[in-house]
Amino acid sequence: MKQALMDDTEDVSLDFGNEEELAFRKAKVRHPLATFFHLFFRVSAIVTYVCCDWFSRSFVGCFVTVLLLLSFDFWSVKNVTGRLMVGLRWWNQIDEDGKSHWIFEARKVSPSGTAATEAEARIFWLGLIICPMIWTVFFFSTLFSLKLKWLALVIAGISLQAANLYGYILCKMGGESDISKVTASFLSQTVFQTAYLQRQQGLQPEVLYSNELPGEKNSMTHKPLVFQ
């Protein structure tokens, strides 16, 4: 009887701790400064791009300002906010043979460690996904309005922010996919479908494709990220 009461007390205390931790993760923002700068540079770049004609007539000044904001955003998201807010990091390493390796890391959540809060994770991923979509809208609006002088800046915005989005998606998925292998698989499937359709139409494909890509040097690895 006494042993049963002790077991019940232990279960209650454990459940209470889990509920407290869950409430903490939902409500608490543990890194307010990192959360602020995660959104500050990318939102500032968008606002400056939209409103630059109202504040300045200098195309060069607006171009350089937006490009600097995009560069600051790329660096801070890649090296700081992703590590602090969601425990993810991606980077490139060149080994002794001169081969380039893309490394995608995810932090192990230990029992004594503090997991990322849901509020921070939600802010991180929403900012990471929505802003490249906005720059994509800018791309089509710039293209259709024939404002070609802004096209290079919009492409830079899409490229820098899409690179971070792609890198963190691979971190989240485990970093097991090799870019060259994924590309080769996609191309082989596309060519196979094209050849099949041509055969159905009585046409013969003129070019043979291989599933292998020559000169394949890049590789991706995934390993747990351990913070001091």
From TrEMBL:
Membrane topology: Multi-pass membrane protein
Origin superkingdom: Eukaryota
Compartment list: Membrane
InterPro entries in alphabetical order: TVP23-like
The UniProt record lists the keyword Membrane: yes
GO cellular component: Golgi membrane
Transmembrane parts of this sequence: 33-50, 56-75, 123-144, 150-171
Keyword field: Membrane, Transmembrane, Transmembrane helix
One of the protein's GO biological processes: vesicle-mediated transport
KW Transmembrane helix (keyword) present: yes
Similarity comment text for this entry: Belongs to the TVP23 family.
PANTHER family in UniProt: GOLGI APPARATUS MEMBRANE PROTEIN TVP23, GOLGI APPARATUS MEMBRANE PROTEIN TVP23 HOMOLOG A
Protein name in the entry: Golgi apparatus membrane protein TVP23 homolog
Species per Swiss-Prot/TrEMBL record: Rhinolophus ferrumequinum (Greater horseshoe bat)
